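Journal club prep — side note

Before the paper discussion, L.F. wants everyone to see what a predicted structure for a comparable chain looks like in token form. Sequence:
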Amino acid sequence: MKAGEKPSGIVGVAIVLCLAGSAPAWAGCRSVTDNPEWPNISHAISTAQLCEQLPVGPNRTSSFRVLSADVCSSGDGLASVKATALLTCETGDDALFQMAPVEGKVVATVSLDPAACRITDTHIEIDGEIGSLLSGLPDTQDFGRNWAQSQLSRLCRLR
């Protein structure tokens, strides 16, 4: 991740999920895991380096396994993407003090207006020990929304 990117990698990839998994009619909810592109999408999500955003402690992502990703239509042209993953953070080999790995579940929900190419809402929940560490970072939700909007804008320019 580049400097300044915080624990919102999954949010940005959720936008990719939405665009990659969207059907022309945006009807109901459906799992993106059924999409033929799922292995590539899952791999992209799993490369999110959330733990690296921690200044100290278990600041290396050792595992980020995507469990589910769903795209839903709200019926008014809006859509939402919800992705769930298991995250394990560990201390880097070069750390002065070693710590036991910590785990948590990450749930990112992104609401968007695909026609306007605009994020309308984002929410990132991280539970477990790692959740208490990552959730303590300032402005995580605002940064997630801004980063997700920048990723969606970039993708819309590619259409």
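L.F.'s comment for the group: The chain has one domain: 9-158. Keep this in mind when we get to the figures.
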